[in-house]
Specification:
By secondary structure, the protein is an alpha/beta fold. Helices cover 29% and strands 16% of the residues.
């Protein structure tokens, strides 16, 4: 199966918008020394679409700002403000810091032990606040609160951001309301008002966006086209968001008078009301989308305001909803990625984070564009947000989205008029359904194709057996962390299921899961598949992983399902994560099967021998609880059959957890395009740097928890030509 060529990165909004002077001035405010030891508040103020978040992010990510503060946290506030969630987000960032500043809260939570998670979840708002105050008290901290809408936000949080902090501590607020800035900021000297762009700045920004493909060269326009372009830009009123959306639209058009004139005369301009409105321009950007992209854009509106959207999760949503059109033999996921890039190119969504290989890891939607998506979706009966519905409820709902806990509500009430039309139920919060109300929902969800829930929905126990009746289901996600979830045997009736995601939950999966031949993504990295008994094999026939020939992603705990040759037959796999594998999995053939998976791009092999289930491994493999470890330190042959990765031409990220005899000195042993390498618990006695420094493309190297047990490590000059990040964690003998 062919792999797509890596596309050139889309120019980021922070690079397109000329905010160098603004960034320098805000940075000076943040790093300015004050006479007293009290923390100061800096505010960025400006109308919607002016670039407040872009400016704040540009400053926050600068190296000298990062190094100036002992700890940092970025939280999105928005109109859907909940003090406890904001406090929890700040606590997680400052108590569990990481070199990767862009980690999402969900990823940080994933690293916590059960006890740490339980303690945080049981804390009330004031207890979280007191804990935060205690942690920040002795540090020079920076807390960014983006998109603050009311004084109450600051009044609720200020008590927990200690004023008598280490000299130079700062809070950075972005807001549209100058009164909020004046209320929170002690001095007008710390308020930065973003101005609208002047005529020349607007024109230059428009050219950069509309002519992205020509590099840094200034485009040559005819006098007629330049005149039309400047008339179009004038209508944007100096708002960067409007300019980049319009520039993105025109970048897809022919550079002709007729094409640009048609945009100038578009009827959507009349939607703009008032000098600060760009509704018409944004609507113009939406209406110009090809029909296959309109649904994808609207779907981005289901996520809570100001949330960071996991790109992979979004793509799987689009696939399940049927938005992705086939193009010959191209992989559907690659086509969906193209759709996402086109929305980014048009500035209708923004890149929030990228993977090491340059692909989009997460994206974000500007709140003005999200407002447009929600409004258009409501008019088209595309989806309904439960919190926005009035007591009458729509006659028919196809997609229902829930953002907040509904402990005292029964969602079946809002579906009583919908008959069985509901196709998607997406909850971003726990306590939405529960076992008691599941029965009342049955008549409304028979045709459901998408079900996205939290592990709290069913108290972290057993999914209702009736879930097997949802035979049209294509996407099932139960996000959670370390909760125990059991799937019923009726799961094998979900014959149309394409994606099963159980997050970080510890789950029991019946062996009949291998019947679901349409599965493309099985992401259950801490879940165990039950063994098939001999009697069952005789009665029902053998079931094995090799029957899932469409699998692109596989993440599971090792077990008896690895004993056959099924793994080596999954030749379409792009991502493979095997956790908690014991020695019993390590037959010679195992690595021969891995060698056959030449389409892999991402591979994690985690072998533990003697570790109890209480030992929790975080996403980087860090052991948080080191009880009951019975590893024989003299037995260093846990991965003796490891074969060269020279056939894995697309493998860019490799993580190995388990004892190795030694690293191969042959560079050909390693994937030729390896960008990130993680070695954990390997007990290497020879300095690995002498070998790893020769890897030509390596950009990130992580050595952790006795990956190397020697006392000396040498990083000589001339090696690691591409290395950007080196993490040495718990190498206790160094």
């Amino acid at each position: 199966m062919s792999h797509k060529e890596q596309r050139a990165p889309v120019v980021e909004e922070s690079d397109v918008v000329e905010i160098i002077d603004d960034a320098n001035k805000v940075k000076q405010m943040l790093m300015m020394k004050v006479e007293t030891s009290t923390r100061s508040v800096v505010s960025i103020v400006g109308m919607g679409g002016l670039g407040k978040t872009t400016l704040a992010k540009k400053v926050y990510n600068q190296r000298d700002v990062q190094e100036h503060f002992d700890c940092k946290a970025w939280v999105y506030v928005s109109q859907e403000f909940r003090a406890r969630e904001i406090l929890l987000a700040i606590v997680l960032h400052v108590m569990f810091p990481d070199d990767e500043e862009k980690r999402k809260i969900e990823e940080i939570r994933e690293t916590l032990s059960d006890e740490e998670k339980r303690k945080l979840e049981e804390m009330r708002e004031n207890e979280l606040g007191e804990k935060l105050c205690e942690v920040l008290g002795e540090k020079k901290y920076l807390v960014v609160m983006d998109d603050v809408w009311s004084r109450e936000v600051w009044n609720s949080l200020r008590l927990y951001l200690p004023e008598e902090a280490k000299d130079g501590s700062k809070v950075l607020i972005t807001t549209r309301n100058q009164e909020i800035a004046l209320h929170a900021t002690s001095s007008k000297a710390f308020i930065y008002e973003l101005r609208i762009m002047n005529e020349d700045e607007s024109w230059q920004l428009f050219l950069k966006k509309a002519f992205l493909g020509i590099g840094t060269t200034t485009p040559t326009l005819t006098t007629e086209l330049e005149d039309l372009g400047k008339k179009i830009v004038t209508k944007c009123k100096g708002l960067p968001l409007a300019i980049v959306v319009l520039g993105g639209l025109l970048s897809t058009k022919e550079k002709t008078k007729e094409s640009w004139e048609k945009v100038l005369l578009s009827r959507e301009w009349h939607l703009d009301q008032g000098p600060e409105s760009c509704t018409g321009i944004l609507a113009l950007g939406y209406n110009d989308l090809p029909y296959y992209l309109k649904s994808c854009f609207l779907y981005c509106g289901i996520f809570p305001e100001d949330s960071e959207i996991d790109a992979w999760h979004l793509i799987k949503f689009w696939l399940a909803e049927g938005f992705i059109q086939r193009r010959g033999k191209e992989r559907l996921e690659d086509i969906a990625e193209d759709y996402m890039h086109e929305l980014i190119h048009r500035s209708l969504i923004q890149v929030a984070d990228r993977r090491i290989n340059g692909r989009v890891k997460s994206c974000r939607m500007h709140d003005l564009l999200r407002d447009l998506a929600v409004s258009q979706a409501k008019d088209a009966n595309f989806f309904e947000v439960h919190e926005n519905m009035d007591s009458t409820f729509p006659i028919s709902i196809r997609r229902l989205v829930i953002h907040q806990n509904l402990i005292n509500h029964d969602i079946s009430q809002c579906l009583h008029n919908s008959s069985s039309r509901l196709r998607s139920l997406v909850s971003f919060s726990g306590s939405t359904i529960g076992k008691k109300s599941w029965g009342s929902l049955q008549e409304h969800i028979k045709l459901l194709t998408v079900l996205n829930l939290s592990d709290e929905e069913f108290g972290g126990h057993v999914l209702p057996r009736d879930i097997g009746q949802l035979i049209h289901l294509k996407f099932l996600c139960i996000k959670g962390f370390r909760s125990h979830v059991k799937l019923p045997s009726s799961i094998d009736r979900l014959v149309n299921l394409q994606s099963l995601d159980l997050g970080g939950n510890d789950c029991n999966i019946p062996h009949s899961i291998w019947k679901l031949k349409k599965l493309r993504h099985l992401e259950c990295r801490f879940s165990k598949v039950s063994s098939q008994s001999q009697i069952n094999k005789c009665v029902n026939g053998y079931l094995g992983v090799e029957q899932l020939t469409n699998l692109q992603t596989l993440a599971l705990e090792g077990g008896s399902w690895l004993e056959g040759d099924g793994l080596g037959k999954l030749t379409q796999l792009r991502s493979l994560t095997l956790s908690r594998c014991s020695n019993s999995c390590l037959k010679t053939e195992f690595f021969e099967f891995i060698d056959k998976l030449t389409t892999l791009e991402f591979l994690i092999l985690h072998f533990t021998e003697g570790y109890t289930k209480e030992t929790l491994v975080n996403r980087r493999g860090s052991v948080r609880e080191k009880k009951n470890v019975t590893i024989d330190h003299h037995n260093k042959t846990l991965l003796p059959g490891l074969m060269p990765f020279s056939h894995h031409a697309y493998l860019y990220e490799l993580s190995l957890f388990g004892m190795l005899e030694k690293l191969s000195e042959q560079i050909e042993f390693y994937p030729p395009k390896l960008l990130r390498l993680v070695l954990w618990e390997c007990k290497l006695t020879d300095d690995p740097m002498m070998i790893l420094k020769k890897l030509p493309s390596l950009r990130i190297l992580v050595l952790g928890y006795d990956a190397y047990v020697g006392e000396k490590m040498v990083c000589s000059s001339g090696g690691f030509l591409q290395l950007e990040s080196l993490e040495l964690l718990e190498l206790n003998e160094l």
